[in-house]
Amino acid sequence: MRPKKTRWVKCVPGERCFRPSCKPLKRLKGVHVTLDEFEAVRLACLEELKHVDAAKLMKISRPTFSRILSSAHKKIADALVSIKAIHIEGGCCRVGSGKNT
Q: Alpha-carbon distance 74 to 76, whole Å?
């Protein structure tokens, strides 16, 4: 398996865990969303960028961006439907700011 290429993210979430309040903490399962998945959702859904433009910002290919976004959507949907916490952590990312990254 090839090593993963470093993905560039601009926005690091302030909160690293989101959990439903309707279930006791002891019985709550969770899903793990990586920082690159979080960034892909932010760029595609919140910023409404085209996949090719978002991929350029993250310095990855468009197909890789689409796979990352698809994985994030699946995890977030699972958390919403199955009442699970969402933990944002990990991934092979570097945080960049400005146009020089």
A: 6
Task: Say how far apart CA 92 and CA 69 lie, in whole Å.
Answer: 15
Q: How confident is the model at residue 40 (pLDDT cuts 50, 70, 90)?
A: very high
Choose between 20 and 13: higher pLDDT.
Answer: 20
- Do the beta carbons of residue 7 and residue 92 sit within 8 Å? yes
8 Å CB contact between 86 and 38? no
Positive or negative, the Cα torsion across 94, 96, 99, 101? negative
d(CA 98, CA 8): 12
Give tens-digit pLDDT for 42-76.
Answer: 999 999 999 999 999 988 999 999 999 999 999 99
